[in-house]
Protein: Translation initiation factor IF-3
Amino acid sequence: MSSETYAAVRQTAVWCYRGGSISAEPRINDRIRVPEVRLVGPSGEQVGIVPLAKALELAQEYDLDLVEVAANARPPVCKLMDYGKFKYESAMKAREARKNQAHTVIKEMKLRPKIDPHDYDTKKGHVVRFLKQGDKVKITIMFRGREQSRPELGYRLLQRLATDVEDLGFIESNPKQDGRNMIMVLGPHKKKTEAMAEAREAQAARKAEAKANPGRSQNAAEEGVAESAPAEAESAETPAEASAEA
Structure:
C-alpha cells in the first residue's frame, strides 16, 4: 500500500470514528472522478470502455444520468439511466418488500380447566382466527387451588382443542407443566405470507364486487321493505276475518 493510499484510508477511518458516515449513494455525473469508464447503454447494451468526457457527453445527448454502478471494477462500470426514476422505483420495491414481509407473531389464549362450553367455543373461535392469519398460538391452562392436583383436566382440554383445530394448525410444542400453568403451542399449517396474500385477494374481491354491484345493498333493503308490507297487510286483515267469522 502506497503512502498516499494509506493516508487516505487513515483519514477516512478517523472521519468515521468522529461521527461521519460513508454514503451508500452511487456517484453520478460530475461526481465521477476517473479518466475512463466501462459504459452500459440505457437498454443494457455494452458500449465499451470510453473516456469519462465521452460518457458524460452521451448522457447529456440522451438526457439521462451517468451512474457509477460498480465502483470497484477496473475501470468502473457506469450506466446511462434516469437516476430519479431509478431511485423512485427502488423505493417502491423496498416498500412492497416490507409490506409483504411476514413477522412471526405468537398469540396467547388462556383457559381454565373447568371452562364453560360457551366460553370454550368463544376461545376456540379466537384460536381459529389466529391460525387462519398464519400466527402461532400459545394456549395456557391456568390451575387454581385444588385444580393443581388434577393436571389431567388441563391435558385433556388441550388435546380437545388441538383436535378441534387440527385442520388449521398442529401441535408445535406438546403440553407441559409450568408452575401453576400448563402450556401448549399450536403452529399454523398455512404460512404467514400465504395468509396475508389470501387476505389481500379476498379484500380485492370484495371491493370488486361492491364496485360491480353498487346498488346491491339498497336493493336488498327495498326487498326487505316489500316483503314486510304484505305481512303487515295480512296481519291487518286478520281481525276483520275473525270478526266476520264471529
